[in-house]
Design goal:
CATH superfamily of the largest domain: HUPs
Number of helices: 8
Order of helices and strands: EHEHEHEHEEEEEEEHEHEHEEH
Bound molecules: flavin-adenine dinucleotide
Strand order of the largest sheet: 5-9-4-1-2-3-10
CATH topology of the largest domain: Rossmann fold
Strand content: 15-25%
Number of domains: 2
Structural class: alpha/beta
CATH class of the largest domain: Alpha Beta
Largest sheet: 7 strands, parallel
Mean pLDDT: 89
Shape: elongated
Radius of gyration: 21 Å
Helix content: 10-25%
CATH architecture of the largest domain: 3-Layer(aba) Sandwich
């Protein structure tokens, strides 16, 4: 859909302009690509990057028909989200964007809320789908209800859960940061517009950053496969890690496992942890309490391994395996390896 009668921020009817807030200036992550595919179906795409865009990013954007890349004159430095808000607001006003898309997450929720106030926009967080008529689908009340909603304001700000948009086969799901040789030359690069933005809320500063230890696995929130463990692991995540590595997935955990110190808080899935929406969620030794389900039940396929056939997780599982995870998981790994001839 390239033309609609949606009015722009100025109130003038015109074609839909979509502003996509990208996760970084260096490369396109899978979640970015999903937003670009979504935006491409809605109208003309502009993007915002938090710092000066790298050549690798501009080359990767060449295949996505991006009109303009909006970048700040100076990077966010030691600020929290306020520079991103100021930049995105400036870009949205200049481009006349009526739809702003971000990959869902705690930071995106913060940015979206602030943009909602500044632009007088309707805000929808954690959408799992967005139709061409801008109706968003959400899973709410601990996953018990699926709702559809539409902003009544002229501008919509939406955060979309990663893995909600299917990528066409010709769109790579992710491009490694160092894959410069694999991307096209700069012939069709979008134009770059830099903005001098003033941080109007500089009260908080970042005083230190500590990188999480590298696991070689994808980030939990964006992973296409998550293998999650609960109290039933007894503290041994080894079989889960083997399965996650065989499937190229991330490790998740229930709160019981995190509280026991068997997994870090960054791995927690659920009401007070991450909300994930992978293509495949393998739940191992997790009972399936409502607070766990709310963080994972929009997954495409749910496989549950639990030795209790009455466990609530089986109510939402697409495939349930009643058994001891210490027996089931190694068999699954062995089978996967055999299929690959390893
Ligand atoms: C306000 C609030 C917020 C919360 N937020 C979260 C949250 O974000 N995320 C979250 O997960 N929980 C959250 N909880 C806690 C939640 O209610 C449950 O207590 C928790 O999810 C239980 O974790 P679990 O399933 O690992 O443990 P349990 O409920 O003890 O279940 C363990 C399961 O493992 C199975 N099992 C045991 N041994 C094996 C074996 N060898 N092989 C296979 N299966 C085995 C058992 O049959 C059982 O079903 C929250 C609770 C509250 C009150």
């Amino acid at each position: 859909m390239t033309t609609t009668t949606d009015p722009g921020p100025s109130g003038t009817p015109g074609p839909t302009t979509v502003l996509v807030v990208l996760g970084g200036p260096d490369r396109l992550r899978r979640a970015d690509r999903e937003l670009l595919v979504l935006a491409g179906g809605l109208g003309t795409t502009h993007v915002v990057v938090p710092d000066a865009p790298h050549d690798t990013l501009l080359d990767a954007l060449a295949g996505h028909a991006v009109h303009t890349v909006h970048a700040p004159e100076t990077g966010p430095g030691d600020r929290l989200t306020t520079p991103a808000v100021a930049l995105t607001e400036a870009a949205a006003r200049e481009a006349g964007a009526t739809v702003l898309l971000l990959a869902a997450g705690p930071e995106a929720t913060d940015v979206a809320a602030r943009l909602g106030v500044r632009l007088g926009a309707g805000v929808v967080t954690d959408a799992v789908a967005l139709d061409a008529d801008l109706v968003a689908t959400k899973s709410v009340l601990a996953g018990g209800w699926t709702t559809r909603c539409r902003a009544t304001s002229p501008v919509l700000v939406a955060t979309v859960r990663p893995n909600s948009v299917e990528l066409p086969s010709d769109v790579p799901s992710d491009v490694p940061a160092d894959a410069t040789a694999a991307v096209p030359t700069g012939a069709d690069r979008p134009r770059v517009r830099t903005h001098a933005v003033e941080d109007t809320a500089p009260a908080a500063r970042v005083v230190g950053r500590t990188a999480l230890p590298a696991t070689g696995r994808p980030a939990l929130a964006e992973a296409r496969v998550v293998v999650a463990g609960g109290r039933g692991t007894g503290g041994d995540f080894g079989p889960l890690e083997e399965l996650a590595d065989a499937l190229g997935g991330a490790i998740g955990a229930s709160r019981a496992a995190v509280d026991a110190g068997w997994a870090g808080p960054e791995a927690q899935v659920g009401q007070t942890g991450h909300t994930v929406s992978p293509e495949l969620y393998v739940s191992c030794g997790i009972s399936g309490a409502v607070q766990q389900r709310t963080g994972m039940q929009t997954a495409g396929t749910i496989v549950a391994v639990n030795k209790d056939e009455q466990a609530p997780i089986f109510e939402i599982a697409d495939l349930g395996i009643v058994g001891d995870l210490r027996t089931v998981l190694p068999q699954a790994v062995a089978h996967l390896r055999a299929l690959r001839g390893e």
